Amino acid sequence: MKKIINDPNEVVQEMTKGMAVAHSEQLHQLPGTTVIARNDAPNENKVGIVSGGGSGHEPAHAGYVGKGMLDAAVAGEVFTSPTPDQILEAIKAVDGGAGVFLIVKNYTGDVLNFEMAAELAEAEDIRVEKVVVNDDVAVDDVSSRRGIAGTILVHKIAGAKAEQGGSLEDVKSTAEKVIENVRSMGMALKPCTVPAAGVPSFELAENEMEIGIGIHGESGIERKDISTADDIAKELTDKILGDFDFSGSDTAVMVNGLGSTPDMELYIVSNKVQAILTDNGIYVDKTFVGEYMTSLEMAGCSVTLLKLDDELKQLLNEPSNAMAFQG
Amino acid sequence: MKKIINDPNEVVQEMTKGMAVAHSEQLHQLPGTTVIARNDAPNENKVGIVSGGGSGHEPAHAGYVGKGMLDAAVAGEVFTSPTPDQILEAIKAVDGGAGVFLIVKNYTGDVLNFEMAAELAEAEDIRVEKVVVNDDVAVDDVSSRRGIAGTILVHKIAGAKAEQGGSLEDVKSTAEKVIENVRSMGMALKPCTVPAAGVPSFELAENEMEIGIGIHGESGIERKDISTADDIAKELTDKILGDFDFSGSDTAVMVNGLGSTPDMELYIVSNKVQAILTDNGIYVDKTFVGEYMTSLEMAGCSVTLLKLDDELKQLLNEPSNAMAFQG
Amino acid sequence: MELTVQDVAAWIETSNEKIQANKEYLTTLDQAIGDGDHGINMARGFQEATKKIAEQTYTSSAAVLQDTAMTLMSKVGGASGPLFGTAFLKLSTALKGSEPVDYKTFAGGLEEAVNGIKQRGKATEGEKTLLDVWSQLAAYFNRETGFDGEKMAEEAKSAMEQTKEMTATKGRASYFKERSIGHIDPGSASSSYIFEALADVIKGGK
Amino acid sequence: MELTVQDVAAWIETSNEKIQANKEYLTTLDQAIGDGDHGINMARGFQEATKKIAEQTYTSSAAVLQDTAMTLMSKVGGASGPLFGTAFLKLSTALKGSEPVDYKTFAGGLEEAVNGIKQRGKATEGEKTLLDVWSQLAAYFNRETGFDGEKMAEEAKSAMEQTKEMTATKGRASYFKERSIGHIDPGSASSSYIFEALADVIKGGK
Ligand SMILES: Nc1ncnc2c1ncn2[C@@H]1O[C@H](COP(=O)(O)OP(=O)(O)O)[C@@H](O)[C@H]1O
Ligand SMILES: Nc1ncnc2c1ncn2[C@@H]1O[C@H](COP(=O)(O)OP(=O)(O)O)[C@@H](O)[C@H]1O
Ligand SMILES: [Mg+2]
Ligand SMILES: [Mg+2]
Ligand SMILES: [Mg+2]
Ligand SMILES: [Mg+2]
Question: DhaL domain: which residues (chains C, D) (predicted)?
Fold first, then answer.
């Protein structure tokens, strides 16, 4: 295992500490936790936005803590959902009286732990609402669909809504609208290694790729020979377009790297995705290319498409000072 | 070779096209070139800032094109300096009458090609000045020192100076001040593969790392067994501190990933770097952690330290809307 | 026989030993049809639970199980953390006031634990989850009339083995659909160790 | 003998053939003490130069060499692009007005090329660069009195071989310091192919 770490069991603690020290003008770590919160939290009468999940998806989620996005992010162990006590600390730290909104990715672990945290918070008289993001069309069964890169667009838009003074219900219904209109699909060329495990989480032959893989290496739709960037872009985009009707719509596109795929390759993919969308009469209003939701050093990418209405367009373009989000 | 590409010989063209399409609200590609320029260029009476170099270092350099940073970036073939004709096109496109400033990394190829371009531009009556960045302390001989991640801080500060209306001479002397006060040092765990070559550019055994390596895999100071993140941070930082006296100074720190090193590991390194600096009575004013100057999918990182005075501090904090620079 | 506070504490301690010894095996199971962290998660949680229990003197089994539940809940994470946490919490609540714990009370507590897991995980039997082991053990306890280490360990092992032929429809393994067949469910394996640990305590007459 | 326009065009074409055939070898040399792109760079540049020349009808050797220079300058990139570009540009300038090109004029042109490389690259002999081949060839041309393909090819090869024992102090190879010893300089290897190509043309009497 070639990694720049100290103790494999301390990677999350050291990472969150490193973040808090590096960006102390903007962020801090809640003592005794792996929660990163905005220095100005809680904001009185602003809905607090909390997300989080297993670590290893950086910059998700702490990189999105900042004005206009999240108020706090909870980091679990690598690829392991955080525990309810930690999530509760985050909720308490960002509640400014208008309630707290949780953005959860659709994994059993995340859902269960955030649910328990919400129950604990409600027991302390904090109003909590949540959404569960399930943008990954690789999974047929809609209720089992995973939350992947589309989650970042939920962060952005829900965060902007809250910043504008939206109520807990407003924020929730806007976030739900994003979730209804966002779809993603990913693929991988090379696996990653969880530090505490020390061995790659799955194997791919020198000539193989996996289409539809999850951001923890969960099984995809098909394992096959590596094809060209254009073919890959087409396969991912077609799957998305087959799942949801984007024709005639304004959209936001995200081409996301999983960890070790150079920007060069992401832009080559993006180039083709844009061409396919144009051919399908889909208008691209905004494009994001880069590493937004990674899987440690996995090689591969995902494509995300979000249908925009005027409200979403406006919220997506609001400024944000989160470290990892280009406003 | 596991890469998401089409034709290995077309990667740079497809990438720059992908960039221009993705960020058309802000950037465009000069026809028939691999130059990415700001849509608002040339800005009348603003010094135009041009940088560039071989491709494969993304987001450098096109990711730094934007208000407050570069006016144009010239992309050469992968790890190969761009040619004078392309650089000349960039210079002509951004000259708003106040002259054009070139930021060049200290590699023979870059220096020669930018020099020739400057001569061609002067023949067309455009005033051109340049600096050569040589922040890499891995190389003993100062005149041979390579330009690595510190270059991004030169882009930022020179860009801000030009945006504020500084003259060509002002921009040059400010950039020179940055270069005098910036030092970097890198290391790698895993090599990268140039698409057209198809094989890794060097080999490192499963247990080996190379200290002081360049961003194209140029030889470093020492090849040895992988140690802990803390040891690596200390080795890189000590080498920098041994080269330049930062004690008692305000500084900016950059912990830069070379391509496939997760943010998690970069923050673990950053955590230790900050501790070492504090122990040495060095005050950190601003920290950058992420991928700023990569080497395709190489694994590894570099540490950069810049001594700040009031002018540099102020310029570093000016806003920028470049895609890849967090203002 | 009845379970004393010491027995219950020994149960958790023995569970921990088994989980630590099989940490890599559990991770291997989770690598096949999950994300490869189950061994790491369980080992971290039971290590902490054992430590916590060792540091305290308890006068009730319910208290031991409540501390176990809270520790698992806050240290395991993932899907299994809240589920094992809930199971032990429900068991603890059911055992409150019974000291030592007689067979019937314990059997009733297991049933509560199963209900808790079902509610929290929205799962039913046959979905290839840890519920399959807990549910089969609760049924076995309901059928029988007294603690029997030998038979109980067999029952746990067979429940775990049976998950091998199931198709996963909950948790990460469900992404593999039919390809999940042929692999033992990791959460069922760790649940089986927990019941084998209880069997050891019973057999050892501790 | 003297060099005709056809000879000079054949020179560039033959250089291209040799460089294409040895593209991977040149890259391997550059991987050892550089960044592994030299073969790719030279192959790209000479391919384009050959194409350009094939598309045109020339009446002067200088024009062939000027187009070669400009194409190399704009297609090779890296350190070698401006250096080879400069070398051919200086040679072109020196040959202007001499048609066909006699030995003395060509020898003088080579000297100009060497001066151009030195000025552009700020290098001197012995720094393990392509200058070492060009410089040795210019000296050889200066010593001799007429074109001799056999001897010229030998001279080029030996000049290239001699870079093996040098320590690089210019270009990327200089980062390797003493570790650069034992490796042939890539730019010298491609320069040697260029002179071998000229030797072939001369021998072939084309
Ligand atoms: N909905 C559910 N109900 C009951 N058990 C579940 C459910 N989802 C997952 N599990 C159990 O959790 C185990 C996985 O635990 P673990 O690997 O620790 O968490 P994660 O899946 O979050 O990585 C599975 O083997 C399965 O037994
Ligand atoms: N300053 C210099 N003067 C003369 N030749 C040089 C100089 N620097 C490098 N070279 C030549 O350039 C060659 C490398 O060319 P190439 O690999 O194409 O460019 P780069 O080094 O930019 O990747 C070296 O082998 C050497 O012969
Ligand atoms: Mg997990
Ligand atoms: Mg090069
Ligand atoms: Mg798991
Ligand atoms: Mg080279």
Answer: 6-200
| Distance between CA atoms of residues D166 and D169, nearest Å | 9
Single-letter residue type at A224? K
Report residue C34 CA to chain centroid gap: 19
Query: A293 and A152 in contact (C-beta within 8 Å)?
Result: yes
End-of-domain residue from the set B180, B211, B230: B180
Q: Collapsing DSSP states into helix, strand and coil, what is residue C122?
A: coil
Query: Coil, strand or helix: which one is A283?
Result: strand
Q: What is the CATH number of the domain that holds C194?
A: 1.25.40.340
B247 in helix, strand or coil? coil
User: What's chain D's length in residues?
Assistant: 206
Tokens 């806050």 identify what position?
C74
Beta-strand relationship, B27-29 and B35-38:
antiparallel
CA quadruple B113, B119, B125, B130: dihedral sign:
positive
Whether A296 contacts A56, CB under 8 Å: yes
Helix (H) and strand (E) counts for chain A?
Answer: 8, 12
User: Could you tell me the distance, in angstroms and rounded to a whole number, from the CA of residue C163 to the centre of ligand 1?
Assistant: 13
Arithmetic mean of pLDDT, C43-55: 97
**Whether residue D34 has its Cβ less than 6 Å from ligand 2:** yes
Question: What single DSSP character describes residue D165?
Answer: G
A61-108 pLDDT tens trace: 999 999 999 999 999 999 999 999 999 999 999 999 999 999 999 999
> With touching defined as 3+ CB pairs under 8 A, do chains D and B touch?
yes
State the DSSP H helix or E strand holding residue A160, giving kind and residue range, or none if neither: helix A150-163
Q: Give residue-wise pLDDT tens across range B246-293.
A: 999 999 999 999 999 999 999 999 999 999 999 999 999 999 999 999
Options A28, A61, A155, A216, the catalytic residue: A216
Half-sphere exposure of residue A184, counting CA atoms within 13 Å on the CB side? 32
Task: Give whole-number Cα distances, A306 to A62, A254, B94, in Å.
Answer: 22, 9, 35
- Angle in degrees, CA B80, B85, B87, rounded to 5: 65
Judgement on whether residues B131 and B31 belong to the same structural domain of the protein: yes
Query: Measured in angstroms, how far is the CA atom of residue C80 from the centroid of ligand 1?
Result: 5
B304 with B254: CB under 8 angstroms?
yes
- Alpha helix stretches (DSSP H) within B137-262: 150-163, 168-181, 229-243
For residue B230, give the nearest of A6, A259, A326 by CB distance.
Answer: A6
> How many contacts, defined by CB atoms under 8 Å, are there between B and D?
94
Q: Is D15 helix (H, G, I), strand (E, B) or coil?
A: helix
Phi, psi angle pair for D35, to nearest 5° = -120, 15
- Residues A192, A165 share a domain: no
Across A131-152, average pLDDT: 96
Q: What confidence tens digit (pLDDT) does each residue in D96-154 have?
A: 999 999 999 999 999 999 999 999 999 999 999 999 999 999 999 999 999 999 999 99
Q: Are A135 and A181 in contact (CB under 8 A)?
A: no
Q: Give me the amino acid identity at B268.
A: I
**In this structure, which amino acid lies at residue B7?**
D
- Sorting pLDDT into bands at 50, 70 and 90, what band is A327? low
> How many domains does chain B contain in total?
2
Please name the residue that has the structure tokens 């790209």.
D44
Find which of C80, C83, C175 to mutate to test the A interface (most A CBs within 10 Å of its CB).
C175
Q: Residue B29 and residue B12: Cα distance in Å, rounded? A: 12
Judge if B109 and B205 occupy the same domain: no
Question: Cα(B252)–Cα(B263) distance, rounded to whole angstroms?
Answer: 18
CB A160 within 8 A of CB A169: no
Task: Tell me which amino acid residue B187 is.
Answer: M
Identify the H or E element spanning C108: helix C103-121
Q: Which of the listed residues B148, B180, B212 is the one where a domain comes to its end?
A: B180
Catalytic, out of A23, A28, A57, A61: A57
The pLDDT of residue B326 is above 80: no
Domain containing residue C94: 5-204
